[in-house]
Specification:
The structure holds 2 protein chains of 2 kinds. Chain A is built from 2 helices and 33 strands. Chain A is mainly beta. In chain A, about 0% of the residues lie in helices and about 40% in strands. In chain A, the strands form 9 sheets. Chain A has a 5-stranded antiparallel β-sheet with strand order 1-2-33-32-31, with no helix packed on it. In chain A, strands 3-4-5-6 form a 4-stranded antiparallel β-sheet, with no helix packed on it. A two-stranded antiparallel sheet of chain B has the order 1-2. In chain B, helix 3 runs parallel beside helix 8. The chains are: A mainly beta, B mainly alpha. At the A-B interface, strand 8, strand 16, helix 1 and helix 2 of A face helix 1, helix 3, helix 4, helix 9 and helix 10 of B.
Chain lengths: ~450, ~250
């Protein structure tokens, strides 16, 4: 693990779209990134089944400039590789998603999932230990009972901070297909887990039972043409959730209407543009991520080439569409050949829902300001990430003439893809996972 | 080629403004729409056959590729090119026409088994011979579709060899039957002697409908069909007896 800590520097107005690096971290291939509800903790999951949690440093007198740094808080192995003996298949330990629970006491809880099993982890701090036991020595050995001549009350003494992660629940054996999403409900008591064909509802306290709420598996598997790609609970209405499909549709379901939500309450689909139809139309329309806005009024979907913002009250088309990398439209056949067309990019909102962010290739990621329609392309790379450096906006050359500092489409590195990004719930701090590096960027403070 | 597919179903051979430098050589360099479409079809079938030795393949990806194949098939049917394919002789191609299948994983078990030549490869070749284009590039593409050795693949039985179009559709559909066969519920049926409590728990937990459709005896070698209670050896002999066997490999 290689961590570089770089102090953010205040001062120097450069405008809103200037970012610089806060933390750089190297590990296994990162497969998920998630801030907790306060933004003080940032969890990453990786391909090796590990979870690494970062904690934001509080400003202290001795280190006045330390606010904004994220340091490693806890590391633990969440999932191990398993072997399904009957199918003769490995079950990957890769962490597909992490979702935090709202904090209710001193400990922190998160859900982490691989393809088949969801686990609830408790992360707690210990900074005291008890001394002066009657029945055992200081080093833990049991004392002979006849040696105990007097009774004393154990006292608590401070010790170095220890952060422990312990698995509290294991939710297993409920998914035949690969889990792609988990989402904690606003009631903070239940959560959903979605695989390719089914969505299950769990209670956080109950591990031996889950309720199936969506099942799109056809009776005859030969008729399968569509799978579930993502699902999420509404941030405020605990009876409402959405799920997206590989055909570019989103269904909003109300759990009050029926126990099995195969019938949707709302159906969101944009009619296809017949002039741009090709054999790849369906593949690029497949939705890889769906996220409600913090307000709950909108939701955002990510398909291969664009990000769309939908008003929950309008089903027939999105209210906003942002092209992420339209220049790839003429390369779809090559991208199909090398499987890049199946890459699942995620997207996220900022805390005020004014800006959205998503990743692209060549370690580029893009942010779109909804009001001003300003968009910017930035690169997460070690070369351009000097300490306290301001990130320079990047541009992909789409016409024949390449300007200075522009990058041509053909020189893009399609192995460097930013699939996972996260935005601090309240501040302009973003976490960007570039393969096995985690970048943290912070807006420059005036 | 990318430009061609971007333009979708229009049967233009090339886009003069974008690709051609204006020379005759430039025009000849662009493959015809049919050839490109065929190439895409071949590529898609190869993708479906690629197996992941240890981990289950991505169902979403498989579904999207299969849908693409269906799209092409439907268009080719409308064109009449599909009919042309199927009227060709569908005799078993000789193995020496097959390109090395390094890209396809194989198990030692399968290598010991008989080699089954996909019928699709046969009419693929015949289709190419009807094309006037330089088929050298497409030959290799088409050959790579042929998979004499497939790992735990679903056997695609041609019940009605005359209904070739239906067969193709059927084989495509049976890709998902393979996936279905991988589910614990069907496995429960397959192994009568296996402790079923694992699967009962699974069924109970998720309320899944148990899959009673078993389909045909397939080449999942360790399994046997429950409906006819055939043993492994019976399955294998059924395998060998079939004249036209197309193996679409979906899952390992």
């Amino acid at each position: 693990m290689d961590i570089e800590l770089l102090l953010p520097t205040p001062g120097g107005a450069q405008g809103r779209d200037c970012w610089f690096i806060s933390v750089l971290f190297t590990a296994d291939i990162i497969s998920t990134v998630e801030f907790n509800y306060t933004g003080d903790l940032l969890a990453t999951g990786d391909k090796g089944g590990r979870v690494v949690i970062f904690q934001r440093e509080q400003e202290t007198k001795s280190r006045p400039l330390s606010r904004g740094e994220y340091n490693v808080y806890s590391t633990f192995q969440s999932h191990e590789p398993e072997f399904d003996y009957l199918k003769s298949l490995e079950i990957e330990e890769k962490i597909n998603k992490i979702r935090w629970l709202p904090q209710q006491n001193a400990a922190h809880f998160l859900l982490s999932t691989n393809d088949k099993t969801i686990k609830l982890w408790k992360i707690s701090e210990r900074d005291k230990r008890a001394e002066g036991y009657n029945l055992k020595d200081e080093d833990g050995r049991l004392r002979e009972p006849f040696r105990v001549t007097e009774l004393r009350v154990p006292t608590l003494k401070p010790m170095d901070l220890m952060v422990e992660a312990s698995p509290r629940r294991t939710f297993a054996n409920a998914h035949t297909y690969h889990i792609n999403s988990i989402s904690v409900n606003s009631d903070y008591a239940t959560y959903l887990s979605a695989d390719d064909l089914r969505i299950n509802l769990w209670h956080l306290e109950v591990t031996n039972r889950s309720f199936n709420i969506v099942d799109i598996k056809p009776a005859n598997m030969e008729e399968l043409t569509e799978v579930i790609t993502a699902a999420e609970f509404h941030p405020h209405h605990c009876n409402v959730f959405v799920y997206s499909s590989s055909k570019g549709t989103i269904r909003l379901c109300d759990m009050r209407s029926s126990a099995l939500c195969d019938q949707h309450s709302k159906f969101f689909e944009e009619p296809e543009d017949p002039s741009s139809r090709s054999f790849f139309s369906e593949i690029i329309s497949s939705i890889s991520d769906v996220k409600f806005s913090h307000s709950g009024r909108y939701m955002m979907t990510r398909d291969y080439l664009s990000v769309k913002v939908w008003d929950l009250n309008m089903e027939n088309r999105p209210v906003e569409t942002y092209q992420v990398h339209e220049y790839l439209r003429s390369k779809l056949c090559s991208l199909y050949e090398n499987d890049c067309i199946f890459d699942k990019f995620e997207c996220c909102w900022n805390g005020t829902d004014s800006t959205i962010m998503t990743g692209s290739y060549n370690n580029f990621f893009r942010t779109f300001e909804r009001e001003t329609h300003r968009d910017i392309t930035l690169e997460a790379s070690r070369e351009s990430s000097k300490p306290r450096a301001i990130l320079k906006p990047r541009k992909v050359c789409t016409t024949g003439k390449r300007k200075k500092d522009e990058i041509t489409v053909d020189s893009l590195d399609f192995n460097k893809k930013i699939l996972h990004t996260a935005w601090h719930p309240m501040e302009n701090i973003i976490a960007v996972a570039a393969t096995n590096n985690l970048y943290l960027f912070q807006e420059k403070v005036n | 080629m990318d430009t061609m597919f971007m333009r979708g179903l229009k049967r233009k051979c090339f886009d003069g403004e974008e690709d051609i430098e204006g020379t005759l050589a430039g025009i000849k360099a662009i493959p015809s729409y049919n050839l490109q479409r065929q190439s895409l079809l071949d590529m898609s079938l190869v993708k479906l056959q690629l197996c992941h030795m240890l981990v289950e393949p991505n169902l979403c990806r498989s579904v999207l590729i299969a849908n693409t194949v269906r799209q092409i098939q439907e268009e080719m049917t409308q064109d009449g090119t599909w009919q042309m394919i199927n009227t060709q002789s569908t005799g078993q191609a000789s193995l020496d026409r097959l390109v090395s299948t390094d890209i396809l994983c194989r198990s030692s078990r399968d290598q010991a088994e008989g080699k089954h030549v996909p019928a699709y490869s046969t009419f693929n070749k015949d289709f190419e011979s009807d094309q006037a284009q330089d088929s050298s590039e497409t030959m290799s593409t088409a050959s790579s579709v042929q998979a004499p050795r497939n790992l735990q693949s679903n056997v695609w039985e041609m019940e009605n060899p005359q209904e070739n179009k239906g067969n193709f559709q059927k084989s495509l559909d049976q890709i998902f039957e393979t996936l279905e066969n991988k589910s614990p519920n069907s496995v429960e049926d397959l192994f009568s002697e296996v402790d079923n409590s694992y699967y009962d728990l699974d069924t109970m937990l998720t309320g899944m409908m148990s899959n009673t459709k078993m389909g045909h005896c397939d080449s999942l070698e360790t399994f046997s069909s429950p409906t006819n209670t055939a043993s492994n050896s019976n399955c294998k002999s059924d395998l060998n007896d079939l004249d036209h066997i197309v193996e679409i490999l979906v899952e390992s």
